Amino acid sequence: MGDLIASNADKIVDSLLQSIKLIAEYEDSKDVKPYTNIVHDICDVELKYGNHKKSLTNAQQCVTLETFDNTYRASTNQNTNPKNCKRFKDFNSNVTNLLNREQQEHLDDSINEQLLQDVALHRIDPFTKRPMRNPVRNSVCKHVYDKDSVKGVLKVNAQTRCPVVGCSSKQYIQMNQLVEDKELRRKLEKVAASEDPLED
Ligand SMILES: [Zn+2]
């Protein structure tokens, strides 16, 4: 009987955790209280059953009805808070983990979106209109070009201004004012690596 209660309780708690997984993933309001209440009640039943069983064993050794009664009652009143049950505590920590994990995954998603946006804005070289491989930043106007492409353009015409539409700098581009943008390069590589090579 006790095993049956425990194994049924295992099954119920498992399926409640599955529901909470879905809530964490899809629901906007993360109200898990009704589920926690169910587990609380299950723990209560288990606790009471366990206590009665233990009390009966203890009381069986009593020879008079009165001592039987007293011993039985004294043992049943021990340890009656379901919140102290291992099952209840495990359930709560599982719920916390599930909700936190989901939050963390959302955070990772938004970081990736941010990365893709950054890269989408900066990946194309303004001279060749092709994806940059080695981005360099003009320290005068902060615009970015591909190193090889700006080098090639300056070789042909040393008096080249920043080609970015709306750029306020009227100066000619100087190679010594271009700084390698390692962070952007890392981002470009990261996005390129995550893209399907067949799409290129
Ligand atoms: Zn510029």
TrEMBL record:
Q: In which pathway does it act?
A: Protein modification; protein sumoylation
Q: Which GO terms describe its biological process?
A: double-strand break repair via homologous recombination; protein sumoylation
Q: Has the keyword Zinc-finger been applied to this entry?
A: yes
Which Gene3D superfamilies does the protein's record reference?
A: Zinc/RING finger domain, C3HC4 (zinc finger) (3.30.40.10)
Instruction: Write out the GO cellular component annotations.
Output: nucleus; Smc5-Smc6 complex
Tell me the protein family, please: Belongs to the NSE2 family.
User: InterPro entries annotated for this entry?
Assistant: Nse2(Mms21), Znf_MIZ, Znf_RING/FYVE/PHD
Cellular compartments annotated: Nucleus
Q: Which GO terms describe its molecular function?
A: SUMO ligase activity; zinc ion binding
In its UniProt entry, what is this protein called?
E3 SUMO-protein ligase NSE2
